[in-house]
Design brief:
The chain is largely without helices or strands and about 250 residues long. It has two helices and nine strands.
Length: about 250
Amino acid sequence: MPTILHKDSRVEMHRVPGDTLAGASLRGFDLRHADLRGANCRAADLCLTDLGDGDLSTATLISADLTLATLTRCAFRHATLGDARLQAVTAPAADWSDADLTRVTLKNSSLRGATFANANLRRADLSRVDLTDADLTGADLTDANLSFAILTGARLPYAALIGAVLTGATLRGADMRHTELSLATFNGADLTDADWANAMCGGTVIARSRGVATVRGLDTLTHLASSSIDRATVHSARDRLPRAFLDAYDSPS
């Protein structure tokens, strides 16, 4: 019978029937400060569970359901969460460094100040997520859905946003230096004061987006192929876009 201990005091918090926590129902449990390092929580029900300040580093949470869970300052370092459901979680300052979050659903979640350094977020649903001041350095966001996400002040240097959808996303002051932006779509995005120094573009689409003229580093981009920017966005910039940038972008009528 698995025993869940407090990570600091080592006091027993819960005993759960079965041989592992795989498939276990922990719905609504108070697991604050729990030590679940390396635990097998595959397909577990953790809806509405409070895991604040807990440690799930290296845990397996494939296909687990954490909908509406509280994950404040929770550690998921090197955890495996492929296909997990984390819709509408509250996870400020949580640490997902080096975690596998392939195809997870995080939509409508609060992830302010969270860390996703070098995390795998390929095909993740991050729509309408608040990632204000989050650290996504080196994260793989290939084909991720970031529609209407808030990334104000977020750090994304060396991240991969290949094929990512950022429709309506807010990227004010975001650090996107050396980011791979090939095939990414910025439709109706707010790019005010973002830093794209030495980023890579190719097939990148910018349409009806705000603040493009204030983006830093547009003259340092590496263009792997031609990209697209709509005439309305170019016109709103009032000749403040570098010629090298415009030469690499087609402006359809």
